[in-house]
# Entry
Amino acid sequence: STRIFTVANQKGGVGKTTTTVNIAAAMAMGGLRVLVIDLDPQGNASTALGVEHRDSAGVYEVLMGSAQMSEVVQKVAGFPVLDCVSSNTSLANAEINLVSMVARELQLKEAIDSISVNYDYVFIDCPPSLGLLTINAFAASKELLIPIQTEYYALEGLSQLLETYGVVKKRLNPTLILSTIVLTMFDSRTRLSNDVAANVRSHFPNELIDIPIPRAVRVSEAPSYNQTVMTYDPLSPGAIAYMQVAREIAERGKAK
Amino acid sequence: STRIFTVANQKGGVGKTTTTVNIAAAMAMGGLRVLVIDLDPQGNASTALGVEHRDSAGVYEVLMGSAQMSEVVQKVAGFPVLDCVSSNTSLANAEINLVSMVARELQLKEAIDSISVNYDYVFIDCPPSLGLLTINAFAASKELLIPIQTEYYALEGLSQLLETYGVVKKRLNPTLILSTIVLTMFDSRTRLSNDVAANVRSHFPNELIDIPIPRAVRVSEAPSYNQTVMTYDPLSPGAIAYMQVAREIAERGKAK
Ligand SMILES: Nc1ncnc2c1ncn2[C@@H]1O[C@H](COP(=O)(O)OP(=O)(O)OP(=O)(O)O)[C@@H](O)[C@H]1O
Ligand SMILES: Nc1ncnc2c1ncn2[C@@H]1O[C@H](COP(=O)(O)OP(=O)(O)OP(=O)(O)O)[C@@H](O)[C@H]1O
Ligand SMILES: [Mg+2]
Ligand SMILES: [Mg+2]
# Structure
């Protein structure tokens, strides 16, 4: 059955988008059918996947009920099955509009459930907050993937994130599991990176995929060519690490 | 009169907090009276300044009207006059609570106006979003400082940020000026960093302070010691660059 991941962390700039698009691309290159949902008003995932997103209907229209998910899915060029539901700037207004809706936390879940049968994997890229958009993603997913940047501030916000996960799991979605943690922008030369990695390793031994994604400029160059690093520079250290992490995620899924 | 800055950029992880605390510290070391307001529920600025923030009343209580700003100001150790109004995790609920309040965008302004006379500079560190907390900061400020990370995604969100600035300036705060842009995490060895810097230089020649803050591990280590880099390693490249940027901001203020 379809694995549905939320990729979330309210700390900004920790690699949520980069992890979403590169793992999605790696899975798609392996022949799996993959959908990416861009739930961030900045639309960075849509950019990295090269889909038009400023002027077309996307996930905002789906949340507001003015479009069906199947109508706004776009194909990502160059992959057998990699699709994207893009975000546009209206999404910035979604949270205020959602506040007064009935079943406001479940809008995304209903939409995803209508099309998830077409995919092996769904990844939802979240904005850097624990507001109603991220809650919608939690309520719609079966698994939670947390990217953790190997920097000091990245640890500070974890307890709030885990608290929100706990509340959603208890009240909205008991099937949600924190299954995966990925270390990002790892610099093996610095004590800080190694300290944070050791800290995560000891607190989350089962969830952590202990293949840190290295800080690598090719990873951050790729979106300026509307690509993921998987196609921009597939033999680079960043691409290889994301490929290995994607393989490990797929393996763990089989074991279930 | 008091200069009041909002430090904002909805893109996550671009150096909002790091720029806020280090410029504030640099100004305070120069004998200016400085206040930092931590408007981010993550409380990273409070951490970097070494003030207790998990269990004490802070800016949330002020926004909700259950405390006066003067009651929640904390002194930052080691400086003549550097104060901080901290954030705590309740702040994550502020936006939903603010939605239904009368004059919801002006709660922070009224609070800051009650104490700003005691300071030469006020800096408000914003969360990575353009929601009601950031709008409150825009409405309360006279100047906007935008940190721009020299990475591709950092340029994508600028138009939304400038749009929000324009709307607030027109409807809530005509005195607000985008006065300052600072380049962060600059790596002179990469084409990407140099391209982004050149792009910002050509679009914002007057606002940009053309002293890029280098990517430097001492900057990101400092918060793990509850310090800013200004006291953690004052002769390091990051601290020197922030000192120069602070001096330039102060000079530009005099010229007015
Ligand atoms: N392994 C890496 N090596 C180098 N740069 C990276 C790496 N991973 C991400 N980056 C860069 O770091 C920045 C932050 O990453 P990204 O935008 O994916 O984080 P995010 O958590 O999605 O941010 P936001 O909180 O704004 O949504 C981007 O400019 C990205 O290109
Ligand atoms: N010049 C620098 N050199 C190295 N690391 C830096 C530099 N500036 C900031 N950092 C690190 O980059 C990360 C992001 O910076 P910071 O937290 O200040 O950004 P932010 O915009 O406040 O993030 P958020 O959107 O979550 O509020 C932090 O781990 C910080 O320590
Ligand atoms: Mg993102
Ligand atoms: Mg911050």
Remarks:
- The pocket of adenosine-5'-triphosphate (ligand 1) is lined by residues A 12-18, 40, 44, 127-128, 184-185, 213, 215-216, 219-220, 238; B 11-13, 128, 151, 153 (CB under 6 Å).
